Amino acid sequence: xxxxxxxxxxxxxxxxxxxxxxxxxxxxxxxxxxxxxxxxxxxxxxxxxxxxxxxxxxxxxxxxxxxxxxxxxxxxxxxxxxxxxxxxxxxxxxxxxxxxxxxxxxxxxxxxxxxxxxxxxxxxxxxxxxxxxxxxxxxxxxxxxxxxxxxxxxxxxxxxxxxxxxxxxxxxx
Length: 173
Ligand code: SF4
Ligand code: SF4
Hints:
By secondary structure, this protein is mostly helical. 50% of the residues lie in helices and 0% in strands. The chain has two domains: 18-109, no CATH class; 115-167, no CATH class.
């Protein structure tokens, strides 16, 4: 009699901390329990190749160990540029970029936003421009020469929509 081979379901390890469980319940954070701490993600990560501060495996480990405040108040989860190279190579199908997005969601809800990102948000809410200073006389002249509208007052409308959509709970119209 020939023996039939069954497809093995993915191994989900038991949550090792309440923080890991919390992350696993966030959209995108589900896969964290599959991590076996092999380190392939760190070896693949371009950000990690540029700075020793950033180690995705270690960040996952801290979540698994329950270092909630340390992770949420750190700027490290915000350094992931969501390139997903690590995910291509992870043998356990852990979606690291999704997990770090889940971490950032919780961090933002609890007021832990690194100043550089908070400043960016403030800038967009203030005038609709990420790089307001980039709109110089030169560009205004260029727009004029091209017959484009030089009055960028539309930004005010954009700002109103962003505020309404994200800060007043209403749909942007
Ligand atoms: S490559 Fe995958 S399994 Fe290995 S440490 Fe990174 S997330 Fe965990
Ligand atoms: S998705 Fe994030 S953690 Fe993964 S390789 Fe890219 S930058 Fe590194």
